[in-house]
Every structure is written in structure tokens, then in C-alpha cells.
């Protein structure tokens, strides 16, 4: 039923996209040739003469949208990802269209008109998709457009999956029940027990065929403990016998990246345990270019504030204005990080091993203010400029704590495979100061494995609105 509905929904999306593209063409025509602000000299083609070649671009755009999976289910896709695919699809279509009108030798067709048309089309389709997405989310939260799912297996993954379903009502997942052989029961705190108690156990794995016969199941999510993986084949075979799609949430996901990179050795699939997008030279070049341009711009913009902070630091407490400290950076190399001094002058040993706490007596009054507002971090723009740091990345730590954490916290050293940052995914999610190191590592590794240009933009945007002032920034 869901797959049938998806078919109709895709057709509706195509119709809506066509309407937006046609409206964009009319708007562009009016803007270009009917607006007194723009003076157009020389021979102007008629509306019909513009429309005929434009009929060519419509199927090109729709094919491009299909290539960028804009007609695939987007329950879990972010709106930013969808918007980026729309923009990319539109501009790719424009270049193909330019090639076509050149080959067909269509004269006097305004390239400016085409560019404005594509820009307006991208904007209109993004707005349309935003409205559709918002409407669907609202319907799913209210209990409509539900996808009925069955969870097979009981493990820590089951709890995590149920938490995410509860947190993301817009996914529209209705959990019909849990199927489990009762071999393994994960440890749960009170909150997790409450979530788990709302799910009914409706049978064992041997009962799957009977369940499929009685219940309307759209999809099966397998969350088996790794010790029960010999049952995978049986579960998949029974599901496919009844035409039910299966999704596996692997218990070994804690060892592999969120988006595993699969290679082949003479036909044998091999999963790369740690695929890092920033290992790609083009991605690395893009990020470094942004860092150089961004740090230079921010140094110029914030120079009056930095001068003011420097003066107040000097007159409110004795000692140097800039505090220099060794931190561990890319590939475990030590570098000197700069900050405005926010504490009284300390001995080298105190600097190396003392952890900052909420009411730390070493902080100056002005120091407390600049730490709370992150103004003490501004000199790190120079660290970014010289290449020791990035604008966005995992926060660097002191060598003393790195030596301690690498033995205590699994995967702690993974974050050193990219440049550390002034702000990061962990920081904009409130993980600053005296907060869980394990959680920070989890967020840092997610960023490292899922880096995109737009992910960086999102983090910088969130930093502006909720990252500078933070209750945990001591």
C-alpha cells in the first residue's frame, strides 16, 4: 500500500514541479520584457519564440531531478540536502540546454533570460518542496500517512531506534510490534524502560509468517544482537516471501562509519572501516579555501572587538594578553593554540593538567565574561589562517588529556584524522566545558564521516545563533 501511495505521490511531485517551472518561465518573461526597469534594445523574440526552445528544458530538468533522487522517498532526508540537489539539478540542466541551443543553432535566444529562468525555477521548486515537506510532516505527526513497521530483535540498537522514532514523529513510523526470541535483553535505564514498555511483543521469529498474514506490515527493521546473526537469512526469506521490505540496523555499526565505503577485491566486497570525505583532495581543497577566505574576512570584521578585548584583558589583570597553549592537531601533531588570556598567570604544570570548572577561582572577572561569550577564542582565526586549525572541526585538546583519554575512551584518537576547529558539531549541540567526553567523540566522529560543504555552513550558522554563548562554557 505504501509503495502504491509513493507512486501516486511521485506523480503529484512531478506535476507540482512542472507547474513551478512553467510559472517561473512566465515570471522571467514578465521580469525581463514587461518590466520598465529593464531596457531591452535590438530584436526581441516573441513569447512563442522563447517558449518553443524552453519546452526542451522542461524534460531536461525533470530527468536531472530524477538523477539526483528528487523523486525518491525523503522521510529521512534533510531539507538542506534536497535544496542542494534542486539547485544542482537546475544548473546542470541549464548547461545541457545551452549545449542544445548551440547545436540547434537557435539565434538571439537570451542567455541572461535562461540564467534568470533557472534561478527562479530553483527558488520556486525549493519553496514548493518546503511546503510539501511541511504538510507531510504535519500529517504524520497527527497520525496520517503512516508507515507500519515491525521490529525484529531485541538489543541496544532496538532501544536507540525506538528513541529516534519517538523523537522524529515526522517520519511517520507506526511500530506494529516487536518480534524476538527472548535470547538477549539489553540493559536499560528508567527512561529507556518506559519507551520499551510501549512496544508490544507479538511473537517470536518462528511466528513471522503468521504475523505477516494477519498484520499490514510495510517494512521490517532488523535490530538483532550480533550473537543472533545466524537468524538473518531466515528473517529475510520469510519477509521477502510476503513481499515485505527489510532494513538491517547492524549491531557492528559502532565499528563502521554511518556511510560505509565499500570497495571490491576481485568481486569480494570490502567495507572500509573509516571513510573520511576530507581525504579526497577536492574536498580538502574546498575546505582549506573556505578556511583561508573565512578567517581573513573574520579577522578584519572582528578586529575592533579583538582590540577592545585585548585592552580590557591588559588593564583588568597582570600578565600577557594572549594565552598560548599546546594542543594536539591533525595527525596527532602538536601546535600552539592562541586565546585571549581569561585566567590568572599559572605555572606550566597547572596549564597542562588542570581542568576548568564552573566556579574556577583561577578565572578573572573579565575572563569569565569572554569565556562565556567565546570572545577568548577569536585569536584562533590566526590558527586557521596558518593551517593549524579549521573554522569547523573537532575541538583540540591538551597533550596531557589526549594521553589520558586515548586509553579510557574508545575511538578518541579518530578525531585527529582531520584538522581541529574553532567550532564543531559537538559544540553547537551543547557539548562544551565539563560535559561528556564520550558524547563529544560520538559527535566529532559523525562530523568526520559525514562532512560536506553544507554541513560546515550549517554548523557555522548554528554557531552564530546558539554556539557563542553557552551555559557549559566555563
TrEMBL record:
The keyword Repeat is assigned to this record? no
GO MF terms here are: undecaprenyl-phosphate galactose phosphotransferase activity
What are the alphabetically sorted keywords of the record?
Membrane, Transferase, Transmembrane, Transmembrane helix
Return the Gene3D superfamilies for the record: NAD(P)-binding Rossmann-like Domain
Give the coiled coil ranges: none
Q: Which residues cross the membrane?
A: 12-31, 51-71, 83-104, 110-132, 292-312
Classify the protein's membrane topology as the record does.
Multi-pass membrane protein
Q: Which residues form the Bacterial sugar transferase domain?
A: 287-467
Q: Which domain of life is it from?
A: Bacteria
Q: Name one GO cellular component term.
A: membrane
The protein's Enzyme Commission number: 2.7.8.6
Q: Where in the cell does this protein reside?
A: Membrane
The protein's matches in NCBIfam families, at most eight in alphabetical order, are given as: EPS_sugtrans (TIGR03025), WcaJ_sugtrans (TIGR03023)
Q: Which family does it belong to?
A: Belongs to the bacterial sugar transferase family.
Name used for this protein in its record: Undecaprenyl-phosphate glucose phosphotransferase
Amino acid at each position: 500500500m505504501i509503495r502504491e501511495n509513493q507512486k501516486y505521490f511521485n506523480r503529484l511531485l512531478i506535476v507540482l514541479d512542472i507547474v513551478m517551472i512553467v510559472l517561473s518561465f512566465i515570471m522571467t518573461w514578465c521580469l525581463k520584457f514587461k518590466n520598465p526597469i529593464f531596457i531591452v534594445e535590438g530584436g526581441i523574440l516573441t513569447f512563442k519564440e522563447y517558449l518553443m526552445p524552453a519546452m526542451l528544458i522542461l524534460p531536461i530538468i525533470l530527468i536531472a531531478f530524477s538523477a539526483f533522487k528528487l523523486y525518491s522517498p525523503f522521510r529521512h532526508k534533510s531539507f538542506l540536502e534536497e535544496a542542494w540537489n534542486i539547485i544542482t539539478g537546475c544548473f546542470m540542466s541549464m548547461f545541457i540546454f545551452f549545449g542544445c541551443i548551440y547545436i540547434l543553432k537557435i539565434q538571439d535566444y537570451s542567455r541572461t533570460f535562461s540564467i534568470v529562468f533557472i534561478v527562479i525555477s530553483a527558488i520556486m521548486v525549493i519553496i514548493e518542496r518546503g511546503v510539501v515537506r511541511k504538510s507531510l510532516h504535519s500529517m504524520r505527526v497527527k497520525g496520517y500517512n503512516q508507515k507500519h513497521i515491525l521490529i525484529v530483535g531485541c538489543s541496544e540498537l532496538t532501544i536507540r531506534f525506538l528513541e529516534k522514532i519517538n523523537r522524529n514523529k515526522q517520519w511517520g513510523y507506526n511500530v506494529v510490534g516487536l518480534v524476538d526470541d527472548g535470547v538477549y535483553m539489553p540493559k536499560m535505564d528508567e527512561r529507556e524502560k518506559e519507551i520499551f514498555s510501549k512496544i508490544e511483543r507479538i511473537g517470536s521469529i518462528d511466528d513471522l509468517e503468521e504475523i505477516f498474514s494477519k498484520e499490514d506490515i510495510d517494512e521490517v527493521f532488523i535490530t538483532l544482537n550480533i550473537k543472533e546473526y545466524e537468524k538473518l537469512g531466515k528473517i529475510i526469506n520469510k519477509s521477502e516471501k510476503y513481499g515485505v521490505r527489510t532494513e538491517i540496523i547492524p549491531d557492528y555499526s559502532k565499528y563502521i562509519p554511518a556511510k560505509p565505503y565499500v570497495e571490491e577485491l576481485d568481486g569480494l566486497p570490502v567495507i572500509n572501516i573509516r571513510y573520511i570525505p576530507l581525504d579526497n583532495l577536492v574536498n580538502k581543497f574546498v575546505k582549506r579555501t573556505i578556511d583561508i577566505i573565512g578567517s581573513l574576512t573574520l579577522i578584519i570584521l572582528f578586529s575592533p572587538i579583538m582590540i577592545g578585548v585585548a585592552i580590557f584583558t591588559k588593564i583588568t589583570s597582570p600578565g600577557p594578553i594572549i594565552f598560548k597553549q599546546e594542543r594536539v592537531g591533525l595527525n596527532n601533531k602538536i601546535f600552539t593554540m592562541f586565546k585571549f588570556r581569561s585566567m590568572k598567570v599559572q605555572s606550566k604544570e597547572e596549564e597542562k593538567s588542570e581542568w576548568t570548572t564552573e566556579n574556577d577561582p583561577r578565572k578573572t572577572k573579565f575572563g569569565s565574561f569572554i569565556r562565556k561569550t567565546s570572545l577568548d577564542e577569536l585569536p584562533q582565526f590566526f590558527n586557521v589562517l596558518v593551517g593549524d586549525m579549521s573554522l569547523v572541526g573537532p575541538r583540540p585538546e591538551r597533550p596531557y588529556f589526549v594521553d589520558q583519554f586515548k586509553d579510557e575512551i574508545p575511538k578518541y584518537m579518530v578525531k585527529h584524522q582531520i584538522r581541529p576547529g574553532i567550532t564543531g558539531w559537538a559544540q553547537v549541540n551543547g557539548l562544551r566545558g565539563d560535559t561528556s567526553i564520550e558524547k563529544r567523540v560520538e559527535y566529532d566522529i559523525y562530523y568526520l564521516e559525514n562532512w560536506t560543504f553544507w554541513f560546515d555552513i550549517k554548523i557555522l550558522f548554528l554557531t552564530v545563533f546558539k554556539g557563542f554563548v553557552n551555559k557549559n562554557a566555563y
